[in-house]
Structures are given as C-alpha cells and as structure tokens.
Predict the 3D structure of the following.
Amino acid sequence: FDTSAPETVDPSSVPQPKDDFQEELVIRPLHSGDIYASFQFRTVWETDFMRGNKVSHYRLFPKSLGQVISKFSVRELHISFTQGYWRTMQWGQPFQPSPPGAELWVWFQDSAECKVYAAGCVDGTWKELTNVLSGIFCASLNFIDSTNTVQPSASFKPLGIGNETDHRFLRYATLPREIVCTENLTPWKKLLPCGSKAGLAVLLKSEKLFHSSFHSQAVHIRPVCQDWQCKTTSWELRQTLNVVFDLHNSAQGKREWSLFKMFSRTLTEACPLASSSKIYIDITDNPQGEQFEVSPATPLLSQAVVLGDRRTFSVYDLTQQITFGTVRSLNLLIRWKSSEGDMLRPLLHAERYVAGYGLQTGEIHTLMYNNHPYRSFPVLLLDSVPWYLRLYIHTLTVTSKGKDNKPSYIHYQPSKDRLRPHLLEMLVQLPPNSVTEVTVQFERALLKWTEYTPDPNHGFYVGSSVISSLVPSIVAMDTNSTRERPLFSSFFPCKEESSYFVRVYTEPLLVNLPTPDFSMPYNVICLTCTVVAVGYGSLYNLLTRSFQIEEPSPGLAKRIANIIRKMRGVPPL
Amino acid sequence: CLSERRRGQLAALSIAAVVIIVGVPLWWRTTETYRAWLPVNQINELANLQLQLSADVEVVFARGTVTPEQQKKVPTQVVISLCLFCSSPLEADLSLHTLSESPCGSLVVYVIPESSTLLPEDVDVYIGQRRTALLRIGAQMRVGRTLEQLLAHLEPRIKQVLQVMSFSHTDITAALSDRVRLSPGNKESIADSMRAFKSSPGYEITFSLLNPDPKSHRVHWDIEGAVQTYIQPLLTKLAPLANFSIDSQTLYYAMLGVNPRYDSSRSAYTLNSDSLAHVINPVEARLGSNAASSNPVLNFLLYVPDAHHSPLHIHDHKKQEVLSNAFHSPRWGGIMVYNVNGFYGPEAVFPVDININMAKVMGVFLAQLRLLLGVQSSAPPPGFLVAPCSSTGLADWELDRLMWSRTVENVATATTTITSLAQLLDQIGNIVINDNIAQQVSSAVTSLQLAVAELEAGNLGFALQYSKEAILASERAFFDPSLLHLLYFPDDQKFAIYIPLFLPMCVPILLSLLKIVSEARQKRRERQAKKD
C-alpha cells in the first residue's frame, strides 16, 4: 500500500467544510417559580436537495433525515412531539410553540412528476413519509391518514425560502393522543452530531426531562439563505427541545435552580464539532439583580429582540475554557430573592372548550384574547375537526365585545365520512383589549363498532386550534435573516419591523361519543336467530301438523265405573 | 283424515327440500371466502424441478494446431492466425476480444500450438479478462487423426476451463444450499456461500467514518472522489446483476463494543480475533437503518481509534498482526481500523487535522466488497494462469460466474417461495385469495418457467432477468397484507354464531323426516304382511 501520501496537513489546505453546527440553551426563570429551558441545535449544510438532486455523503447532517428529504422531495418538514400543555398566561410565549401530542406539517417540492396529478401523487408520498418518520422517531405517526390530514390554505406558510404557496403541496396533521416518552427522545438525540456524549446534549437525561410540567421536542428542516443576496441556498436542520420544570415537583418548593437540580448533570465541555455553543439566561426582569442572582457571574451580556420585546441575556460561551473555571465544570445557579414582580401579559392567547349536554349535539367555543391596550390586529384561526363531529357551519358565530364580528376570510372544507376531516380557517380582526368568541355547533356521529378506539369511554380527541398572527411589536424587529443572531430569536422569519409572528395553540378537546355495548353484535345475532327460530317453529308446526277432532274424554266418575265394569266383565258404558 | 296426514308430510318434505336446495347453498355462497384460481399443477411441477444449465463454448483452433486432413473436416474456416506480434498473453487476450464479441454466459477457447511462446513454460491455460481462454495443445493430444478424437482429447481441459470461468458443481450447490437441503459439501464452499449476501434486486452500500475522539482528531476523507475512482467502476460492471446505491456518513463518539488490551511488548493496543464478534453490535445502533429503501445494506466502517487507544491492531488466531488491520463480518460488511497516531508528534496541538489516504482504505474495502458480493477468487487448478484484474476490478467471466450462481439462487428462492405459499393456501382454507395475488403467482410461475428455459438454452442474460422478475412477483404475492385478514377466524366460533339459528330450524325438520321414514317403513311392513 502506498502510505507516502501526506496524511497530516496544515489547516490552510483542508477544504472548508460546507456544514456548520451550533448549539445553545436558553434558560428563562419564570415568575411562577418554574423554570423554562429551551435547547436549540442547528445544522446548516450548503447542499441542494431540490429537483431530485442525489445527495449521498453526509457529515454533520444525519443521513436518515437526508434520505427522507431526497426520497420524498420534501421542501420543508416540521415535526414536534409534546407532552403537557403550554400555559401561555403563566409562562408567556414559548420560543417554539407546539400543540400537545404530535404535530407534523410538510411542504413538498413541486417536482416534475407531481405537477400534473398533484393531489394523488402528494397523498401517496405523504402516506409513505409518515410511515418512515414513525419508524425514525418511534412514534405512532403511521396513524396519520386522510381522516386527520388537512391542507390549510393560509395558516402554514413555508418558513424557509421559496415562494411556493400552492397549498396542494402542503399537508398538516396532528395526533393529540400521542404520548411522548423516552423512546421518542433517544432517536431524536441520535440525530445530533455529538449524540449525548458531549456538549449541551449531555444534559438531556430522560428521567429528568420527563419529570416536568411540559416537554416538547421538535425537528424542523427547511431551506435557508446562505447570504444576504440569497445566491446560494443551504439546508437547515433545527432540533429544539423545550422543557418547563415545576417549582413544587422538581425543586421541592424552593425557589432555587441549578443545572444539576434540573438535569442531574453539569457541563464540562462544548461539543467539539460546534462552531458556537452558548448558554443564555434571561435577566431582563432582573437588571440590578434584585429578583434573583445568577452564579457564576458572567461579564458577557447580550441583547436580542425576541417575540416583540428587547430582552437582555447573560451569556456563557462554552467554547471558552474560562467559562468552566477552576473546577472544570459549569453548574449554573439561579437563586430567587423575592417572589414579587409580575410578568408582562402576553398580547395574544386563546382557549377552547366544548359546551352542551347529552350525547347528541354540542358546541365548540374558542376564545381569543387580545390584551393589547389600543391596537387591534388580525388573526388566522385554523380548526381541523374529525368527521365524526358533524359541524353545523350555519351556526358559526364570531362575537367580540358583544357585537358580531364578521370574518374577512373564511375557508371551509366540509368533511366526508371516513375520508377527510372538517377544515375551517378564518381571518378575524381582534379589537383592542377584547375577547373574541367563536362558536359552532356539532352533532356526534355514530361510529361503526370496529372504528372505536380500545378505550372508547375515555373519549375522542380533537386536535388543538391553531391561531397564527402578526402581533404589533413594541420594539423594531430585526428583518435581516442572515445576520448572526442567537438561534432562539431567528426561528420565524420576520418580514417587517413593526410586527412579529406568533402562533398559539389551544387545548385539545376530549369529546365523548355515544358508545355501544361491545358484546352487542353477538347478542343481536342470538336475539335475531331466536326470534326467527320461534316464528319458524310455529309456522312449521302449522304447516306440517294435521288437526283432528277428538272426542271429549269421559268424566272421572264414568271412567272409574268403566274400570269396575271391565273387572266384572260387563261392557262399558 | 288420511289426506290431512298426507298434506302434513308433503309440507314437511317440501320445507326440507327448500332448506336443502335454496337455504344451504345460499348460506354457503354468502359465507364462503373468495379464492381465486391458482396454477396449482404448474406449481407442483416446479416443486420437483430439474435444473439444466448449458453454456456455449466456442473452440477456435489457431494455425498449426490442426493437421491439414483434420482441417478439411472443420465445417467452416475458423482457423485463424493468432496475433503474430503479440508478446504477452494479455495483449493477445485484448486483440482477440476485438476479434469476436461473445455474448454474456458464453466462452471462447483458443487452442494455440504447443510451440507457441505466448504462454510461459509451465502454463497450459491462460484465462483472460474477457470471456476468452488460451489453451496450449499438448503433445499427446495430437495423436488423434480425426477432429473428433482431437476434441475428445481436449474435452477434460475445456471442462476445467468451464469450471473456472462459468460454474462448477460446488458453486451451484453453494447457491442452492440455503434453499434446498443437499448433502453437505466441503466446509469451505459452504462458508463461502454464507459470507456473500443473499441475492437481492438492489443493495445499499454505506461507508461510515467512525471518529470516537473529535476533540483530538479532525478527520477528513474524500469519500466522494474515492467512490468515483475505486468503487463506481466495479458497480457499473455489476449493474446487470443488481442496482447499487452508495452513501456515506461520519459518526462521532462511536465506540467499539470491546475495550482493546494494551500489549506492552509492542506498545500498542490489540483486538483479538475472538473479541471481534462483540465489536459490531454497539456500533450498529449508531449506523441507523436506511430510511429510503428496504434493500440489504452493506456496511463499511473506517474506525479511527482515539488518541489514548492508539495504535490499535487486530490480531488473528495465531496472535499475529493482521496486515490490512481490517476484518469483515459475513452478510453484514467490513470494518477497518486506521491508526493515525504516527502522523503527529507528541507536541502536536489538538485537534489535529488528518487527511485519510483513501487509496489504502478503498483497497481493503474493495476486496471486502468483492467477497461480500460473492465474487469468488478460488485458486485455479495447476497449470492455469489468470489474467490480473483490470481497472474495473472485475473480469467479464467473473461477472458471468456471479450471474450463473445468482440466477440459480433466484430460481431456487422464487420456487420455494411459490411452493410454500401454495402449500400454505392449500392448508388454511380460510385465507382469501384475491385476484391480484393469483395474478402475481401466475406471473411468477411464468417467469420461473422462462428462466429455466433460458438457462437450458444458455441465454444467461435473459435467464437472470426472468429470475429477478420471478423473485419480485413471488415475494409480492407472499407478503401481500390481504393474505393475513382471515387467518385467525376459526371454525368453532363461526358455528357458535350460527347455532342459535340452525338448531331450532333443523331439529323439527329432522324429526318430521324421521317420522315420515318410519311411517313409510311401517306401511311397507303392513303391506308385506297383507301379501303374506
């Protein structure tokens, strides 16, 4: 073998890798005493998955996801698994919103073969894709079929580059029943270049993460611009994990948090493959340190505009050895001094419930709150309701402040039994400082006995409503998408300075359907057979028996007399 | 009164008739499972199939190998003058190839005179890179006077050539060994057949660079270029056999499953051959399955040991270092350990940039790939000289050899699949056989028959094509989900459901029939008695 080739090289001759990995953790102490930790891992790769281009050599980007993008011509893929419900009024807006259960939305490329027969072609690909993803993430995504898939016309626009807005290439589905646990976290961690061996990912121990009030993990894949002119495109894989630890459950009621207390681990190094590895602690509400203190202290401060607000963060750069100090380990400590102070009320939030009684009809109420004191803004409401709740769309009412509020845009697609769900999208203007109520009545359908879930008396889930909106911003938003920014502030692209994008999910609904007794089919068969047999028996008797007139039998005295006469040998009477 | 009795009997009889003529067939029809027609006879014929393989061998005599009187009897003038200016057999081989293009599966044997200097002294047979062989005519072969005698003399040699270049008995038994129980052959050929991947319409080849220590080593490999240079030519050559797709990935913090032992005498870490079996499992969890297809995956791992466990050497059974520092796992792939500690000094600043010498790596992987694909390089019999590998890494006749055994294997696989499916369907009457399954089964049977016929005719290319189609169709029929639907619907439950209807209906009918019969019998007895 030829070993004369130079094997070590000076760094200048090494080709610049075309992929880049960043990791960061944002910790936001919440006024309720809970703590919110948000992990973001971003891999950006300068490559082209578009137009059937075959990509086969992977470095930092995970091969399994790359193959999925290539095979199914995916333009954008967003998948999230969430356990628990995000309490907007207590915790504020999350960095990446997600509904309880599993959510999957995918934009497909308008490849040549799918152009003509878009619907059928994309439907087939979608079915295959959900099956493959359920294998990759160990989740029951294979339960996604045409009865819970919709094609929203306005609510889910592509987050990456691309002006494709033909919603025939979009598929959206939620599984509100999906339970998220360790088996979903392990494959998610495996997609990271450093796995859970180094960097921030060592903190992701499942026994702690799932012992929390809220857990949400997500994967977002989209094409992004490489530079300001957007001459070349890159593919971005963003893996996010949001978790809220409960004050009473995880901290035994003491308002004191540390990395070790949250994750039962401390940090000793950054992932060697990461070009940036940072921890941000939100200290906006704590400028002089009167609310809580953070130790070890860091001289680095950073300001970022996120969710319409300018926030200040303490920054810990893990790529610098000095961050770990003399003990070579970083265990951040946040100790609350006072429990006073109030959170800024989120400008937009929503809730939903089912009203009505009995098992025949009901009414869905959706409440949307605009807490802005003087600005009104429009919101897009998306509702996807399963077919077995038959919506009476003529009963749809939208009221704000006691007055009728006419939506400026309504897109309604009625359901087809066992084929597709209802899709209701509308654009509603929310007046300032108001509650807008959307109600619609429905009727419960009777299912076939094989269509019931194994525990039908638990009820049937209806996925969260999605409310998307451009909320007026207090500070000017940053519209330059390529500038170096913390990852958590760069997820939703920002088109104008005066407003920012927010997506809010309501609670999923749990609706009882009329549930039969499941031994019924056998009972029905037996009863019918018995009835038929009884009817048949009498008919048969009528037809086959011959009837004869019989002499009435003689009385008792006469019979006894006859016996005596017989004994005497005299002829009977 | 009698006519009344008669009417009752008639009513009972007609009800029984209606039940038997209308009711029972109606019930039978409505509860019957749909079973499409299957070509059972042809499938049974397949079960005891006689395979006959034939290869075209063309024997060409060079000038000076046949006497004039023998030459007269040669039907056409195929005697040619053989490359006068060639000095080496390689050149002769190439020039002969341009002379005649032989189709896939056939052979051309050129008989050259004893005095020819083309071949070295002790070599009688030279096997080229294409489908040609040079055969030196021996002195004792020239004794025959007629052409037939000459050919009879040549026959054993040509048989040997055929066994090397096309197929031998052991090849075929090895190909069949998984499907058909045969008398155990020699151990080596069985091991050979177990090493190679099963025949499949496609393979995924994955190269993985395992870097357990990215803090110390920043490893770069030009896999794209290496695949283009070393692997792609071989795969292009193998394209008629199967579809191949190649990808690569880099895995960080991927550890081997065993802790290597430190050997102070060599100041190196060693992996013993008996611990190699435990290396793969923990690594495999990181490799990830192929999301985009269900073809078998061939894994090739390049392991760069971490700085604290370098250098790492693999030792064989005799405690000797393995030169290539690599090993392969049958039907799984290969692993190569690539030590990099020699390329930087003790004062190096970590992380060190390291460029991998792809020529060295790909040499090992290519050899492993050949083994795993079943390209056998068994030692030729004495007196044979095999041409060196061409740039594609595979001679034409090696491809043919592979195609022969793969075709036989495909035919055997498809046959067992179809016969076991037919057996299963025969045994369990409850399974619904849809039309599409019947169609797949018929097309598999047709393709199989065609493949067998083409094998007999010696058309290797067509035979392989048909055998592939047969495999695809038979697997599709066998794994069709509709076959599972009624599998667990036992008869006793079915009858439990019908009994509430059947029992009350049938008992009166039976009773009245019995009564009618006994009355008729009694009447006849009375008539008999009256006669007497």
Summary: The two ends of chain A are 133 Å apart (CA to CA). Residues 296 and 325 of chain A are 9 Å apart (CA to CA).
